[in-house]
Amino acid sequence: MRRRTVSSGTAWESKVGYSRAVRAGNIIHVAGTTATDENGDPIDGGPYEQTEQALATIASMLEAVGAGIEDVTRTRLFVTNIDDWEAIGRAHEAVFGDVRPAASMVEVDRLIDPALCVEIEADAVVDA
To answer: Distance between CA atoms of 76 and 107, rounded to whole angstroms?
Structure first.
């Protein structure tokens, strides 16, 4: 089975030793993705904007390995304040409303940077 990895270019990937996305055969895993700019710094914005940015990065990584949003089968959302679920959910629905992947949203104590309020993982399956 052919294995392909891609990076979004942030420093975290090389510091921690992981890929932003891995495609093995027809299975794709996108690592926990937050709302950061090209330098890896958190973007300004609330829960909706951070979710929107994280999902845009995920879409870009999927495209880099030959997939798209329509191929996503599961998302996992880690949020620092579950009371933000509606804003985060609206941003998720704007991207996945027609795809409707299996999804989980879990409150966590904190993320790697205190300015971040959401981190998202995604799994996808493409035709072999």
So the answer is: 11
Please, which residues have CB within 8 angstroms of residue 127's CB and are 6 or more apart in sequence?
A: 26
- Residue ranges in the chain whose pLDDT is less than 50: none
Number of domains in the chain: 1
Residue 99 to residue 84: CA distance in whole angstroms: 22
**Cβ neighbour number for residue 87 with a 10 Å cutoff:** 19
Crossing angle between the packed helical segments 47-64 and 85-96, to the nearest 10 degrees? 30
Residue range of the domain that includes 98? 3-125
Find, among 96, 91, 100, 99, the residue nearest to 118 by Cα: 91
CATH of the domain at 39: 3.30.1330.40
Strand ranges inside the chain, DSSP E: 3-6, 21-24, 27-33, 72-79, 102-107, 118-125
**Pair of tokens at residue 21:** 């996305």
Instruction: Choose among 104, 127, 111: nearest CA to 50.
Output: 111
Place of tokens 């993320």: 111
Would the pTM of this model clear 0.85, i.e. be above it?
Answer: yes
